[in-house]
Amino acid sequence: MIQIDQLTKYYGKHARGILDLTLEVKKGEIFGFIGPNGAGKSTTVRTLLNFIFPTSGNATVMGLDILKDTVEIRKHVGYIPAEVNYYDDMTVKEFLSYSTHFYSDDADERMAYLVEKLEVELDKKVGDLSFGNKKKVAIVVAFVIEPDIYILDEPTSGLDPLMQSIFFELLEQEKKRGATIFFSSHVLSDVQRICDRVGIIKEGRLIKIETIDQILKTKAKNVRIVSDDLKLKNNGNIVNLKKNDNVTTFTYKGDMNKLLASLQGANIIDVSIVEPTLEEIFMHYYAKGDETNEVVD
Fold it and tell me: What is the domain partition of the chain in residue ranges?
């Protein structure tokens, strides 16, 4: 549904947004696109929607070229921007009516459902809304047309926990309907909660694409041991070792049988061995690397 091939965007001679980005998003999946602010996520989204022009490379949405077929692409895409800027002097009701009728004259029932679900205040002017309430309007605009593809840029920013939960419920409904969702975010808990696969972007480059399960099933494990006489021999497989009184925590990257064997004879009060969180794994990819080139998001 989305095919990106060596897409590159430079801002001037030295500041790059994305470099040789290549990936594909399959029909019906929720694809997470993760990285910190400045990694190139918004550049990718804006380039896909032809808000900015690529320096080189190409991309298609539903087989349509992002440069030649912009109007046709937008008929099939629901877009939520990271920053919401609409017509401030319009009331929310006026703006929703204006925007949705570009797509359909029969969206009133769907719009009413979304407005009630998200508790949107129709009579307020757009310019008087808080950031979170503007984001709710953006969600209505994106979801009301029931598009084939959603392109979402930091969609949960500004939403309170209740609205985030409702938003994810709407996403699940759209996935069941068969929609494809490109979910760009730096909030790892959101990505872990909803996405099938994730692409990790760093300094404008895609460094890994995996399913959530594949990323979480790393060989490394987080270990917490409570013992009053623990003595560990580190053969290079123990990292992030911390000790506080009789509680020892570390990440273990070696053979678990050898670790358990090394604990024999110690007075173990409690022990837990768990998978690292997505955030911990994600930070591993950002632990190293030069920062000499400016990246514009």
Answer: 2-215, 219-274
